[in-house]
Design a protein that fits this description.
about 475 residues, alpha/beta, Aldehyde Dehydrogenase, Chain A, domain 1, Aldehyde Dehydrogenase, Chain A, domain 2, 2 domains, 6-stranded mixed beta sheet, 16 helices, globular
Amino acid sequence: MQIQVRTEKMLVAGNWLEAGAMFDVINPQNNEVIAKVPKATEKDMMRAIEKSEEAFRHLASWPTHERIKVLQKAADYVANDFDNFAETIALEGSKTINEARSEVTRTIQTLNISAEEVRRLKGETLNFDQREGSENRTGYYYRFPIGIIAAITPFNDPLNLVAHKVGPALAAGNPIIVKPASATPLSALLLAKALDEAGVPKGFLSVVTGAGSDIGDTLITHPFVKMVSFTGGFEAGEKIAHKAGLKKVAMELGSNSPVIVLKDACLSDAVISTVSGAFSAAGQNCLGVQRIFVEESVYKPFISAFVDRTKELTVGDKMSEWTDIGPLINEKEAKRVETWIEEAVFEGAVIETGGIRERAYIQPTVLTQVSPQSTIYQEEVFGPVVMIEPVRHLKEAIKKANDVNYGLQAGIFTKNMDHAFYAVHHLQSGAVMVNDSSDYRIDEMPFGGVKGSGLGREGVRYAIHDMTDPKVVCFKIDSMWGVS
């Protein structure tokens, strides 16, 4: 099928603009150019920041009912253009068409949750008379928007992860400037169009496309920008945090998530869940199952069933209804994953299935006997690779699960509530999924991790909290009212 190459504009503080230079958006499945997108300059980013600050100062109070209406209308717009959004996600990224549809559905939910949370953005009264001598004081606090939010988003969820930053920012009454991944900017631009059509105030939303090396530092370091929300790799996040200076930062930096399978687990459920968790989105998922620790007595039947189910997965055309796994985001990333697999094998690992690369595709790969010192064991592989290891008991599994510099989410399969709660309290992670893989999330829950997995929490309500600050108001009553 011949794809017509689209030429896009970027949204700069409410204005759809071209740029002096353009860059190509490539379908990683066949290296076909599907769109040309503006390559913004530092001047473009400065314009976005200055106009956003001007809009924020001009619109001193954006009414609650208007924020609700804009977010609801945007959700309706996405729903009415569902197929276009899904096809765009699939074409520019790695997801299959079925995975893309799921992301569009979640995006609609994220926007609607954002609209609902606007109503709940409240303060509370304070009992000033708890202090002796303050009997004549009364007051409260409320939360106010902090100002411009900078959002830097990755390629793997090019629509919903943008919504998870834009929805809360607008719900809180803040302007936001999005710098989407250069590999997948089209989904972010489509969402910008939805919000623009829904009536977001001029200047409150920008989606500035281009290279991070050209525009990233300006966005991160400008004093008008009050918070940086970043989703991406650990090294990039660490650099951004250092550059940001004295401002809020939210960092979701990925993981190499563990799952524990105990002997009393339902093995069929555990296999189904962990195969899906390991290989969905071609493994390019911060929640993806990367390390599985299986109690020794059920290790052989588990790995046999796991490998058999993995071999049933279909790798191929992203746009096919029958495809389970598409390509990685580009051939360079596929070669990196291939290298990590080869290094692990050189260090003693065994390939139970997979391990084959063709262009940007990696066959779903199951490794055993992986050295804990291997790169693929310690780092986030971000590809369709999983490691399975036998353990003697739960305590050994938890020790191994915690023995990395990440802690986003974890999973455990067991019917024993004592074991489940022991894992909940001892696994070093932002969430523990009991009888589910690490790859489970709803868009309302607080989402984030510990150690190298980041700072702060996403999830609409929790992001809104970080994007607002409390202001205390106190009245000294007798001096105001003059009552004798």
